[in-house]
Amino acid sequence: MFRTGLLTLVLAGGLLAGAGAPARADAAADGLAAAKAKLDAYRAKPVFNAPGPAFDIKSCSAGKKQLSIPNSSQNPFLKGIIDREIKVGPMIGLKVEEWQNQGQPSQWVQGVEYAIRGKFSVIDLISGIDPKTIAPQIAEAKKAGVRTMTSHFYDPSQPRSALTTSDLPVSFNTIGKILADWSIVNTGGKAHIVVVKTDEVPPTGPLVDGIRSEIAANCPNCKIVQEINVGIVEWATKIQASVQSAVQAHPDVNVVLPIYDSMAQFVVPALTLTGKTGKVKVATFNGTPFVLDFIRDGKVDMDIGESLDWIAYATIDGHMRDLCGLKQPAEINVPFYIFDKSNVADAGTPAGYDKGYGDAYVTGFRKLWMLDK
Questions:
Q1: Mean pLDDT of all residues in 355-363
Q2: Domain C-terminal end among 268, 288, 305
Q3: Alpha-carbon span 90 to 67, nearest angstrom
Q4: Which pLDDT does position 12 carry in this prediction?
Q5: SS (H, E, C) the chain
Q6: Beta pairing class for 337-339 and 302-305
Q7: Contact (Cβ atoms closer than 8 angstroms) between residue 318 and residue 170
Q8: Which of 50, 129, 270, 326 pairs as cysteine with 125 (C-beta 3.0–4.6 A)?
Q9: In this model, does residue 16 exceed pLDDT 60?
């Protein structure tokens, strides 16, 4: 009786295993197809969608000043945006300055104090400065009539800081999902991933959650092997060594995702020194020109780009709407665009900040701002 029951269990187990294998294969195939379909939407040339109704931007921005404070002036993505804001500002009578810094909170404090003394209208904390780190200074700025805003920083799921007057968030969660879908498709549904992140930056959470959730939803044979957390000021000293250790400790790793593309300058040499160039794929986000050049050179495989020039226009648009008493857009409203070997030539040689995206946004914003009336 016992042996008969045991045989029955063994046979049933075999049948269940046999039934489970095709189901798992179907799930993998379906997930791969779903990931590919989602990626296709970000391969089309971006189009301009107005972030709000047209308004006479010069009527309230002329003669005003905006101080843009990046988390670090050593971040070329942020510096590129601010450089473009400085060029866009004169179109509407707005003077934009950068507060140059090396990522130290004491330097951010000095920037806010400078804005107060200089009677700026707007302080833009661009992508990476948590307002809580300089809360007393923001309070002083408010008393002095200086509006402190954030841009390209939070995910829409995250509440705006009570310290600031407004925010222009970006869907970092969507970015994470694109990175995951790309990893799935480009490994045939067998991605073994190392994620390089910076948890001290608030949007990192939603972005990495996007990677995790999309892998869970679309790839039963994929896994995140390791997540490497490196502080902003430690990128140059810790990313390379950490990635080298990870790919050596886990020979099955076939994708590295440095979630902000300025990290790639430290990931690339790590793969070179470990003999993994070309064997381990690298995908990232931001569209910084030197990283697009890495794609052309075969050192990086994909970068989710945003036109830095487009971001500059959109940031000024959102902040001036707030300054002018108008409703600010719910998001910064800059489209994502995938660059890889197939289209990176469109970004120029060397790559440029705003090449490859088209120029629909330039005429779009000029019309929106009533500059050609």
A1: 92
A2: 305
A3: 14
A4: 46
A5: CHHHHHHHHHHHHHHHHHHHHHHHHHHHHHHHHHHHHHHHCCCCCCCCCCCCCCCCCHHHHCCCEEEEEECCCCCHHHHHHHHHHHHHHHHHCCEEEECCCCCCHHHHHHHHHHHHHCCCCEEEEECCCCHHHHHHHHHHHHHCCCEEEEECCCCCCCCCCCCCCEEECCCHHHHHHHHHHHHHHCCCCCCEEEEEECCCCCCHHHHHHHHHHHHHHHCCCCEEEEEEECCHHHHHHHHHHHHHHHHHHCCCCCEEEECCHHHHHHHHHHHHHCCCECCEEEEEEECCHHHHHHHHCCCCCEEEECCHHHHHHHHHHHHHHHHCCCCCCCCCCCCCEEECCCCHHHHCCCCCCCCCCCCHHHHHHHHHCCCCC
A6: antiparallel
A7: no
A8: 129
A9: no
The answer to whether residue 346 is domain-embedded is no
Q: What is the pLDDT of residue 184?
A: 98
Distance of CA 225 to the CA centre of its chain: 21
Residues 270 and 239 sit within 8 Å (Cβ to Cβ): yes
Nearest 5°: the CA angle 328, 206, 319 is 20
Of 194, 301, 171, nearest to 240 by C-alpha is 194
Assess whether pLDDT exceeds 60 at residue 4: no
Give the tokens for residue 77. 């993505």
**At how many degrees (to 10) do helices 2-40 and 172-185 cross?**
110
> Which amino acid, residue 76?
P
CATH number for 151: 3.40.50.2300
Establish if 246 belongs to a structural domain: yes
- Estimate the crossing angle of helix 76-88 against helix 308-323, to 10 degrees: 60
Domain that holds residue 124: 58-170+308-334+359-368
Q: pLDDT of 182-235, one tens digit each?
A: 999 999 999 999 999 999 888 899 999 999 999 999 999 999 999 999 998 899
pLDDT range class, residue 259, cuts 50, 70, 90: very high
pLDDT tens track for 321-342: 999 999 999 999 899 999 999 9
Residues 190, 241, 229, 133: is their CA dihedral positive or negative? negative
**Average pLDDT over all residues of the chain:** 92
Q: Are residues 301 and 179 in the same domain?
A: yes
The residue count for the chain: 373
